């Protein structure tokens, strides 16, 4: 039986992972759960799953009666990181939000465990460090993002030199086909109205700006050791094809399926085996037709272009882009800036900060901190913007 630790168990990915595990009680068991601050949800999960350990990253939120809740409750970031070293844990799902997930990613790999990675900021902010740890240690990295899971499934069994290019698909989000002037003043509710996927608020806004697709291209660059000129993105409104892989001989493979994060989670947990799951929706080629594809409009969705420029610049530029985007999205969700202000906030740190070679975790987190400070300054300078009610 495979022992699983879920970091970020109260979020969208964490809950999806628990649903997968619930359907396969003879294959997987929950060894530990961790969350940043959602103590009530975490307590309900602990009562249901009876893990060995439960961690609240924000130690001040640790329940006063934690010792009487039926399992070992711990508080603090170091306690969260230590879960990777539990000998009963075989797979760690890193579904933490933000660059804070980088330390957890590295600790899991250094502990020689399988890392099912859903924390994209780890690769975006510290991809050089993460892939160095993969190559140097005994740990194993299996991506959970649907696009990268698709690529992995397509290239499994092939040498990397056989791959010519990969094409990631994007739904286009709720504002697909709109002109830039039409995005003036769009509101929070509109941005969170994703047409095909159910995700957390931050990821959903990233999908609306197409920043998520730039982040995923940066991830693919690190995961599959591909140059940026060999990685593309297209808009695919139906979200059925999750990625294409083109090989040197011109053959193209794709992974298809109805939108659900439970499939890539199941694949990451059981990799390289394929585990039968009768609850997942059977593919219907007629019912899913037609499948259409469009170019990404980087003139309207300028965050996509900014993210790619940061990726090509390399070094700490991607950490700056990621950190600034997190602050900008939070400001938009709180009503402090309008939708187009997200891009203006992200531009400020990218223009002000020098690109450096990535050398250490401390350096990446310091760059992350400085980029956030610059982004907050940009939010204050931009001020509150009128937001259209929706």
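-> sequence recovered:
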């Amino acid at each position: 039986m495979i022992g699983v630790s879920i970091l970020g168990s109260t979020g969208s990915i964490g809950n999806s992972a628990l649903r997968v595990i619930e359907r396969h009680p003879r294959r997987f068991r929950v060894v530990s759960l961790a969350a940043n601050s959602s103590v009530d949800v975490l307590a309900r999960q602990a009562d249901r799953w009876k893990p060995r350990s439960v961690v609240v990253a924000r130690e001040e939120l640790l329940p006063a009666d934690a010792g009487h809740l039926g399992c070992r409750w711990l508080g603090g970031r170091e306690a969260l990181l230590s879960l990777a070293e539990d000998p009963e844990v075989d797979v760690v799902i890193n579904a933490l939000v933000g660059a804070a997930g980088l330390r957890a990613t590295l600790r899991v790999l250094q502990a020689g465990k399988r890392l099912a990675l859903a924390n994209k900021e780890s690769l975006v902010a510290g991809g050089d460090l993460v892939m160095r740890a993969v190559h140097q240690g005994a740990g194993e990295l299996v991506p959970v993002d649907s696009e990268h899971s698709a690529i992995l499934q397509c290239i499994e069994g092939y040498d990397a030199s056989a791959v010519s290019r990969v094409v990631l698909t994007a739904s286009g989000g709720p504002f697909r086909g709109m002109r830039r002037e039409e995005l003036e003043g769009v509101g929070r509710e509109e941005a969170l109205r994703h047409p095909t996927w159910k995700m957390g608020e931050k990821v959903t806004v990233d999908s609306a700006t197409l920043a998520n697709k730039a982040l995923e291209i940066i991830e693919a660059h690190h995961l599959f050791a591909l140059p940026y000129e060999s990685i593309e993105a297209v808009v695919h409104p139906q979200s059925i094809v999750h990625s294409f892989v083109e090989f040197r001989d011109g053959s193209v493979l794709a992974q298809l399926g109805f939108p659900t994060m439970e499939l890539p989670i199941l694949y990451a947990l059981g990799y390289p085996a394929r585990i039968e799951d009768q609850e997942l929706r059977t593919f219907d080629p007629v019912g899913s037709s037609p499948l259409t594809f469009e170019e990404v409009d980087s003139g309207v969705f300028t965050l996509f272009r900014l993210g790619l420029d940061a990726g090509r610049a390399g070094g700490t530029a991607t950490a700056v882009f990621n950190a600034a985007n997190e602050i900008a999205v939070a400001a938009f969700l709180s009503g402090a800036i309008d939708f187009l202000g997200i891009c203006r906030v992200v531009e400020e740190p990218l223009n002000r900060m020098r690109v450096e070679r990535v050398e250490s975790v401390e350096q990446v987190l310091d760059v992350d901190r400085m980029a956030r400070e610059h982004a907050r300054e940009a939010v204050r300078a931009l001020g509150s913007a009128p937001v259209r009610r929706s």
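The longest strand covers residues 28-35.
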